[in-house]
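REQUEST
  id: r-88c1
  op: predict_structure
  target: NAD(P)H-binding protein
  payload:
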Amino acid sequence: MILVTGATGTTGSEVVRRLLERGEKVRAMSRRGVAVPGADAVRADFADPASLAPAVAGVSAVYLVTAPPEPVVDHDAALVEAARAAGVERIVKLGAISGGEPGTWHRRCEQPTRDSGLTWTVLRPATFASNMLPYAPMIAGGLPLPDWTSGGAVGIVDPRDVAAVAVEALTTGGHAGRAYTLTGPELLTFAQQVAVLQRVLGTGIGTRDATMDDARTMMLDRGMRPDSVEESVAGMTRLAEGGYAVLTGDVSAVLGRAPGTFAAWAADHRQAFGGAGGTRGAPSAADTP
Ligand SMILES: NC(=O)c1ccc[n+]([C@@H]2O[C@H](COP(=O)([O-])OP(=O)(O)OC[C@H]3O[C@@H](n4cnc5c(N)ncnc54)[C@H](OP(=O)(O)O)[C@@H]3O)[C@@H](O)[C@H]2O)c1
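RESPONSE
  id: r-88c1
  status: 200
  body:
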């Protein structure tokens, strides 16, 4: 049995789908305990360690997704502790590209997994292409998208590739003690991502420059803890300075094929940019590397 945490989320839902496709036994965990055909569903919360014991019982491997804001490091520690107590053998931990730098939020989140004594693999993806999805209502409404990045480029990655790498690490050998930095095939600034999206959607999309102070204010207004806001701003600043303008061959090395392009991701999600909904005022903590 493989436990997939964050099973309702961007990569977790895709990991569940791909594992089931391979005929694996899957337990899908989230706080909502959403039913997934073909998988066990379990409702558990990292903030409630007692709820984790039934989630890890009888499990051999865990896909570990915790989501900022704080106290997310405690969430990682709680799951790892429960996994060790239950005799889990392997953990594949979703982190972020910033985990490559000591002292960062994501590096601290990796630590319980790395110290677990279990077989572990850490995934450090760059910005997900899917971060564009919450902008769909603004695009539909003709509103300019806020650009916090000051022209900093990222190796934007298709989250389906992240999930595919996770499935390999969960089900095949050769990934123990590895930290994979997962990028797409090209470095793109936010403006370049928007240009690709415009081309694919055949619609005009405006952008407007936004400052880190705007971002800080909006995250605080949304009720994020001040320490989480500062962690997020640090990641966003690093990105704006070009600190995540990195491309690696890790997706190709694990999957044996090139990573997907942002244009291909956009083409596959054209429909999602037609809908309505709330407008997005600020980046979410989980969107920052
Ligand atoms: N977005 C990006 O560009 C990006 C890039 C690199 C790395 N990352 C990292 O990837 C991770 C996931 O971020 P994401 O935006 O993709 O989120 P996500 O996986 O789409 O959503 C978070 C998932 O975690 C579950 N969850 C949240 N709080 C929980 C709790 N207390 N206990 C149990 N389950 C909980 C949620 O389900 P319920 O609400 O149903 O519980 C949901 O399934 C984060 O660490 C983020 O920093 C993101």
